[in-house]
Amino acid sequence: MESPTITDQEFALFQRLIYRLAGISLADSKKVLLVGRLSKRLRHYELDRFGDYYRLLSSGEHPLEVQMMVDLLTTNETYFFRESAHFDFLREVAARRRGAPFRVWSGACSSGEEPYTMAMVLAETLGLNAPWEIVASDISVTVLARAEIGHYPMERATGIPPGLLKKYCLKGVREHAGTLLMTQKLRERVSFRQLNLIALDTRDLGQFDVIFLRNVMIYFDPETKRKVVANMLPQLRRDGYFVVGHSESLNGLCDDLVAQRPTLYCRPEVKR
Questions:
Q1: CA 240, CA 155: separation in Å to the nearest integer?
Q2: What is the Cα–Cα distance from 207 to 40, expressed in whole angstroms?
Q3: What are the pLDDT digits (tens) for 104-131?
């Protein structure tokens, strides 16, 4: 069955919808991506046109389908130890605060490689019996379900140093050959939550020493970026650090944070 086509008018409807729901500015160049990711949902409902699928989503009668659409359009590629300098910095901060409770928030954790990388770094720096915790959040319930299990194809392990791979990852055997599973002790140190950063429910989140929000703001327009950072900032300790991706910046978005070094931000009184 051929994929349905989408008109410019229909695509504009979806651009406005995903912006309203997730704050994502879907560029005109992403039309092919949208068609590729959503065509199977049209087939599921036996619909011929994207306009019909949009009306189904807008009816208010299919909230689970709305979440499915958001999941399909917001899932992004990630990998272990991505932008490794940030994890070197996390190690430095954790070492300086050894002995005190230490909390990190992975704000857009996708399929879990980022928070599990954090967990390996903190386990090595502070030990598995120390009082540290990682909270990992994403808007997509689909990727969160995968992340919580911590089960990955072995080719995903490329960025994990051999010593950490051996220590914190279980090699799959028999029907699980070619895969790895994060150890239970490591998985227990990461809690996953479904959160929408543009409509953030901060109940029970608490305060964090370090917040990572990497490689997601590239999909936001300036207004949404400011809103997301403002929503997250109250959860950052006064002496905490806010980390963004190497292609991102908080310049002009937040007056309360200053750059300690590129992509690493803190409040002015913390900078040294």
A1: 34
A2: 41
A3: 999 999 999 999 999 999 999 999 999 9
Active-site residue identified among 71, 138, 189, 214: 138
Its CATH architecture, for the domain 85-266, is 3-Layer(aba) Sandwich (3.40)
As a CATH number, domain 8-74 is: 1.10.155.10
Q: Which of 175, 179, 242 is nearest to 208 (CA)?
A: 242
Which residue of the set 37, 41, 82, 91 is catalytic? 37
| Domain regions of the chain by residue span | 8-74, 85-266
Say what the pTM is. Answer: 0.89
Active site residue 103: no
Asked if 138 is an active-site residue, the reply is yes
pLDDT, one tens digit per residue, over 250-261 is 998 998 999 999
Please check whether residue 140 is in contact with residue 70, taking contact to mean a CB–CB distance below 8 angstroms: yes
